[in-house]
Amino acid sequence: MKVLAIDTSTFVMGIAIVDGQVVKGEMITNLKKNHSIRVMPAIEALLQECEVSPQDLDRIVVAKGPGSYTGVRIGVTIAKTLAWTLRIPLVGISSLEVMAANAKYFDGVIVPLMDARRGQIYTGLYKAEGGNIQSVVADQVILATEWANELKSYNEPILLVGNDSVLHEAVFVEALGHSVQVASATFHNPRPSELAWLGMNREPEDVHTFVPNYIRLAEAEANWLARQQERAEG
Amino acid sequence: MSKKDIFVLGIETSCDETAAAIVKNGREIVANVVASQMESHQRFGGVVPEIASRHHVEQMTLVLEETMRRANMDVSKLDAIAVTEGPGLVGALLIGVNAAKALAFAHRIPLVNVHHIAGHIYANQLVQEMKFPLLALVVSGGHTELIYMKEHGVFEVIGETRDDAAGEAYDKVARALQLPYPGGPHIDRLAKHGKPTIDLPRAWLEEGSYDFSFSGLKSAVINALHNAKQRGETIRPEDMAASFQASVIEVLVEKTIQAAIHYRVKQVLLAGGVAANEGLRTQLQKQMKQLPEVELVIPPLSLCTDNAAMIAAAGTVLFQQGKRATMALNANPSLLL
Ligand SMILES: [Zn+2]
Questions:
Q1: Is A33 found in the same domain as A65?
Q2: Which terminus of chain B, N or C, has fewer Cβ atoms within 10 Å?
Q3: How far away is chain B from the Cα of A65, in angstroms, using its nearest Cα?
Q4: Do residue A23 and residue A39 come from a single domain?
Q5: Which pLDDT score is estimated for B184?
Q6: Interval A62-68 mean pLDDT
Q7: Annotated binding site for Fe cation: which residue ranges of B?
């Protein structure tokens, strides 16, 4: 089974071709550059190098968020369109789960995180067992300080993963002391081969109805709902 | 040499419509699908970019599938894919651009990037063959432009708005009259029942300029309403709508006629969403009688508002002229014509 994996949910752009048990090719950059310009040429180049034609693909796996709204949408749009027109299954995987998978041999709990501005982070709690990753607390957006406090109830070593970990490290160290550590720089970029791997046996999505997991409502929508609520409470 | 038919898929997502269409030989609509998000944006009183982008992701493949189904065609049989590169909302444009790139890549089909306004102009090609040189008046929520074309694929902007687009002015005046969004159709409807009794300015700008300006007019409307209220008088909304519309239309039509004479064109095209405005259509038809040798073409309403058939029509011409986009094509929200 030839799987194409696409992750554009953060500044990291990841493309991989995994053929059964073999990771044939993987391209990762961590640059503040435009995904819209670079992703399709990257897919084209990688497929060519791996001598895989679009028609040879058996499955598309995409990181579905959370992350940059625009970034996630670029990857999801390409993935949906390819899966639709090639008539192959599409699988969406949490962008945080892909990050956590980098620590799948860590003995403790794994906290992948992305900065979500104003002290908030997109995060979740994952645990590894025999090299398999499991979600313990669902992906969410939460204040870093609040999340650090909640993590006090886990009596296990905690590993922060993701390029934005360094931005929030101090908050976690203050709340959790020595039980928390930050993965080294080489473990922060989510790996598209892991994404392909995670999606290999998952139940496919309905291609048409599949949408990113933004976690948050659009700001205008949230404000509108708040106004409706106010009015109802009068 | 056999002349093969050319089938081009158009994709358009520059604002709040997710659209796809297939056009044969640049002239004939084979399938034309538009999914409007208008209802979703109505409660916000305007298009919310982030919400528009989210809807495009929900609709894109559905719209593509419906288009291919109606055309009874397979994507791999297309000759080219044309997509709106800009201008428009960047997040919205990105969905169409990336979907188009994925399709072009999957089936190795040529990709052509199209300017949204070129699309609006080429909507006319689906109605009547274009005759050059021609003049196009493009009026929409985002644009008010006079474009001169001496041949296919060559656009010269000879006049444009210096502030608000005509459609924007309509929406703002509609809001001042407490009419729902989008305001254009409501003003057009009210104006029919009113008289242009309120004296409003006409922005002619410098002698010989084909540029437009509508922000002064919009302010004049708001001031007139405010002053009347202060004096305890009421202005009939119908009369205000008629007065506002008269001012907008007089300037649009007069500048179009002047440009048509100056550039000695064979055809005048009306394009863009505001072309749906009955007052504008009627007045333009009436005034164009002064120039019996110039043909006036106004596409049906469904082709005036945003659609992908117009993108496919423009894309066909550009494709035949050899224009191609690479996989590095990006959305360009402020693309120049
Ligand atoms: Zn338009």
A1: yes
A2: N
A3: 13
A4: yes
A5: 87
A6: 98
A7: 116, 120, 306
- Structural tokens at position A105: 């041999």
Query: CB–CB of A218 and B331 under 8 A?
Result: no
Task: Choose among B261, B154, B252, B265: nearest CA to B210.
Answer: B252
- CA B304 to each of CA A67, B62, B67, B137, B271: distance values in angstroms, whole numbers, following the listed order: 37, 23, 19, 12, 6
pLDDT digits (tens, 9 = 90+) for A85-123: 999 999 999 999 999 999 999 999 999 999 999 999 999
Rounded distance, CA B169 to CA B148, Å? 24
Distance between B33 CA and the closest CA of chain A, angstroms: 16
Q: Are residues A176 and A198 part of one domain?
A: no
Q: In what helix (H) or strand (E) does residue B50 lie, and over which residues does it extend?
A: helix B49-71
Give the mean pLDDT of chain B. Answer: 94
Cβ of A224 and B97 within 8 Å? no
Q: What is the ipTM of this complex?
A: 0.96
Residues A83 and A195 in one domain: yes
The beta-carbon neighbor of B98 closest among A74, A208, A211 is A74
Cβ atoms of residues B249 and B200 within 8 Å? no
pLDDT of residue B141: 80
- In this complex, which of A44, A76, A208 lies closest to B62 when CB atoms are compared? A208
Q: Structure pTM?
A: 0.95
State which H helix or E strand residue A195 sits in: helix A192-199
Residues in B touching A85 (Cβ below 8 Å): 64, 75, 102-103, 106-107
| Listed residue (A37, A117, A79, A114) closest to A205, CA to CA | A79
Residue A233: what pLDDT? 85
- Whether residues A66 and A110 share a domain: the answer is no
Same domain assignment for residues A90 and A6? yes
Any domain includes A134: yes
Domain with CATH 3.30.420.40 in chain B: 7-122+304-320, 129-298
CATH code for residues B7-122+304-320: 3.30.420.40
> Tokens 């009794």 — which residue?
B197
Residue-range definition of the domain harbouring residue A83: 2-95+190-215
Mean pLDDT value of segment B288-306: 94
Q: Which two tokens stand for residue B253?
A: 């039509």
pLDDT score of B40: 87
Spatial distance between the Cα atoms of A30 and A28, rounded to a whole number of angstroms: 7
Q: What is the DSSP letter of B212?
A: B
Q: Which fold has domain B129-298?
A: Nucleotidyltransferase; domain 5 (3.30.420)
